[in-house]
Amino acid sequence: MRLLGFTACLAMLARSAAAIELVIGNEDSVKAAASTIAFGLVKYYTGNNTGDTPGNLPDPYFWWEAGAMFGTLIDYWALSGDDSYNAITIQAITHQGTENGDFMPRNQTRTLGNDDQGFWGMAAMSAAENNFPNPPADQPQWLALAQSLFNQWASRWEDATCGGGLRWQIFTFNNGFNYKNSISNGCFFNIAARLARYTGNETYAEWATKIFTWQETVGLISPDHHVRDGVHINIADGTCNSMDQNEWSYNTGIFLHGAAVMYNHTNGSSIWRTRVDGMLDGARSTFFDPEANNIMFEQLCEPSGFCNNDQRSFKGYLTRWMAGTTQMAPYTFDAIHPLLVADAAAAAKACVGSPAPPAFKGHAGTACGFRWTTGTFDGSTGVGEQMNALSAVMYTLVGKVAAPVTADTGGTSKGNPNAKAHEEIGEKPITIGDRVAAGFVTSAIGLGVVAGCAFVIS
Ligand SMILES: *[C@@H]1O[C@H](CO)[C@@H](O)[C@H](O)[C@H]1NC(C)=O
Ligand SMILES: *[C@@H]1O[C@H](CO)[C@@H](O)[C@H](O)[C@H]1NC(C)=O
Ligand SMILES: *[C@@H]1O[C@H](CO)[C@@H](O)[C@H](O)[C@H]1NC(C)=O
Ligand SMILES: *[C@@H]1O[C@H](CO)[C@@H](O)[C@H](O)[C@H]1NC(C)=O
Ligand SMILES: *[C@@H]1O[C@H](CO)[C@@H](O)[C@H](O)[C@H]1NC(C)=O
Question: Which residues cross the membrane (predicted)?
């Protein structure tokens, strides 16, 4: 009895010492909470271990989510000044940028979609905009990496089906090749808008306008600014009348932020302001739970508890892009900041879990759950949960740091407007040697690569 009581008491002490204390508005408190959550996040990463591959998260996390995580860590550094993770971030992005500087790593070919590349590209863009330490000169540079992606996407834009747009997948052999979706086109739009603002090159702005208009024309952005998931290509005639109407938080977020960047780039044009306002309304009315104090939720799957690994990270991106919107369209700050603050408080209350490794390897009592609407830890852990909560807490600092720079206002990253996929996989006949080097084991996949060639060339 006595021993048990003592142990229980120790456990309780440990718990109360570890739980995340967060005093919103107190910068030190926010930074300390963010630091604790970031520590738990990075503990999932193994890519810097000897023998592992820099940039990769272990299973079950896909390649793109690692890109999203490093993008989050760049913002973490920009907001908090804590450079603990800069070294692994530089190592990861330059490694996955590959020696060609094109975010087309051969190891990922079997699942490489335009959106997957996009999350790495947005990390590189954030690095340029925040003057994140530049990589050594012989490595791919942040701005050039984003420009390379822009150029790849522009060359993959396809008018023959759906009247335009990017397909989800790059290669014919991947599921989703016949689907044009909002996140792929959203990544293209978001980076085009940011390149326009950063470089002042109007070609990027023209593309941003074209992508947004296509989204509207095909119905993926509704007249009341709701963003739908994607359209299926009718292979027989190239029309696209079958739509997945689902609304995911990251789709609205990525267009909201890109529109805010365009608003800024055009010195406050009314057309982009209308779009920012519309999408902000769409986000508020869709992804904030009116039955739970208007706390953010992933409305399609969170109530039922069936969000998959990918979906369990989306709230973090909506948070990121809402915060970024307040920088690009400062008039939105008063509307957005209170939402961010309420989410931060709610998310911190969900960061009190103590599951044993491998579910969580951070400090006991600080694991973050998925739901922010319950006031406590819901037992769900992972990179998404941890990254969402880190975002919720750290982006409350957004009004306290300088806005992203441009080439004219102190940006130092070296660009290359003509950078593109140096050796797009499939652009040349794939040899047996290539297949072995790329780790392909079945000839079926090898044949698929050759088939992918036809699309890329045509
Ligand atoms: C990997 O990076 C983390 C975070 O910076 C660090 O704590 C850890 O020691 C690194 N691992 C190795 C093997 O260097
Ligand atoms: C591809 O996989 C090999 C073998 O695991 C690894 O050595 C290499 O670093 C990987 N390349 C990239 C860009 O991830
Ligand atoms: C925005 O303002 C800047 C500085 O006054 C000017 O150089 C630029 O041309 C303007 N852009 C637009 C689209 O009006
Ligand atoms: C564009 O962003 C900058 C940086 O936040 C801000 O100072 C400026 O007011 C913004 N422009 C407009 C039109 O809101
Ligand atoms: C502007 O961007 C386009 C598209 O990438 C590129 O072709 C052009 O060379 C760029 N212009 C300048 C002046 O950099």
Answer: 436-457
State the CB neighbour count (10 A cutoff) for residue 52: 12
Cα→Cα distances 159→111, 184, 245, 367, Å: 24, 15, 22, 47
The span from the CA of 243 to the CA of 218, in Å, is 9
Question: Which is nearest to 179 in space by CA: 245, 233, 113?
Answer: 233
Locate the ligand 1 atom nearest the alpha carbon of residue 49 and give its number. Answer: 13
Tokens 């954030």 found at: 126
Q: Which residues pair with 231 in a beta bridge?
A: 180, 243
What is the number of the ligand closest to the CA of 144?
Answer: 5
pTM of the model: 0.90
* Pocket lining: 330 vs ligand 4, CB cutoff 6 Å: yes
442 lines ligand 3 (CB under 6 A): no
Mean pLDDT within 411-432: 67
The number of the ligand 4 atom at minimal distance from the alpha carbon of 263 is 13
Residue 327 Cα: closest atom of ligand 4: 5
Query: Ligand 3: which atom is nearest the Cα of residue 266?
Result: 13
**Residue pLDDT, tens place only, 115-141:** 999 999 999 999 999 999 999 999 999
Q: Kindly give the distance from the C-alpha atom of residue 117 to the centroid of ligand 4, in angstroms, as a whole number.
A: 29
pLDDT digits (tens, 9 = 90+) for 304-338: 999 999 999 999 999 999 999 999 999 999 999 99
**If you take atom 4 of ligand 5, which residue's CA is the nearest one?**
203
Q: Which run of H or of E encompasses 231?
A: strand 230-232
State the distance from the centre of ligand 4 to the C-alpha of 223, rounded, in angstroms.
26
Listed in sequence order, the residues at least 6 apart from 48 whose beta carbon sits closer than 8 Å to its beta carbon are 54, 88, 91, 92
Taking residues 182-207, report their average pLDDT.
Answer: 98
Q: How far is the CA of 203 from the centre of ligand 3 (A)?
A: 15
The pLDDT value recorded for residue 19 is: 80
8 Å CB contact between 245 and 228 = yes
Report pLDDT for 424. 52
Q: Where are the beta strands (DSSP E) in 73-193?
A: 179-181
Q: What is the pLDDT of residues 332-380, one digit of tens each?
A: 999 999 999 999 999 999 999 999 999 999 999 999 999 999 999 999 9
